[in-house]
């Protein structure tokens, strides 16, 4: 019996269509397909093989692979799908801002250009210091910025020559697996080694612990709350921790109040206040506080004035010293409706004037509720900003034309990001100078992470040669 080439091609085409259809529908792929594994040990083992193969690839190869990731992650249909599916699955944030964040992560995360060689030459020869990979990196990603973090981490970690094993938040499982599959297919089409980017079918605490303790995982990167950061720092491995924040925004009497109001609303309402960099409370000098509120109300804010309603809302959205996860990232109008208020559907932010010790001020809410606290003067405002930031060293914002006041706050607050006279998202490279990142390592000191943060420095010495000066 002779089988015609045409029949073989037809069978292959039908099989490929069936596989792609099954994977795009979200059906679990077989273990090891497109970077998805049934267990963490298998995922790590596969990534370990992959990065060793990756060492044989050139920097040109790396650039080609990274461009493939940029292309698939920034494709308009994929951007739309990621944003929509993330909001649907997690119940957090809003679609337009997630599209923007994913696009910035895909197009502007630094690649191999970030790993620059240092060199010294002289009578005794030539010494170079170069960035080399750790090998397999274990990366823990949050539910607040799941796809942005995967895109951002993948580009940086692969640019440094590593493979990465992701342990996503279970509440963002579907969209994370979808993205890992897309990235793997793009890498395969570009000729990359298989399994440079892997994860597990069922994210869990047990799988995260297995990843953190696996001997082949040489570095851990955690983007999330203080609990997971403490866990990676206690692992005995090289660890990068991006923890919580509670960013204050100080406004003094020298600020451009109309601009400050617009910038604060833009920053605090961004993705329903999900970013840890977003303004979480405003400390306004008393003489301009009323004007600031007046200007903020022009930009889609809804003011809460009844103290009883504020206290009711605070009891609903906080649990002790933490935000109630059920309300994190919800729309402002929905939060208002929870306490019987009818705010316009397009309300961007709920604002209210409260005392400094109010839960809205002291707890990082990550929802579009922005408390305003009156301060007698700028010096007091700065001191209170340092206090309410809780030593997280994450992000702070100040609106002022007083260089001395800006300098004082910058020195005292010691945050990784300090935005002056702009919305908070300028600090992560969105509509501001500098590259974007969604892993901001204040606790471990790397700051805004990029490829060089995921690499080791190695010194190579040649004695008595190659000095041609």
From TrEMBL:
SUPFAM superfamilies: ALDH-like. One of its GO terms (molecular function) is acetaldehyde dehydrogenase (acetylating) activity. It comes from the Bacteria. Pfam families: Aldedh. Residues 38-422 form the Aldehyde dehydrogenase domain. NCBIfam families: PRK15398.1. This is CoA-dependent propionaldehyde dehydrogenase PduP. It comes from Propionibacterium freudenreichii subsp. shermanii (strain ATCC 9614 / DSM 4902 / CIP 103027 / NCIMB 8099 / CIRM-BIA1). The gene is pduP.
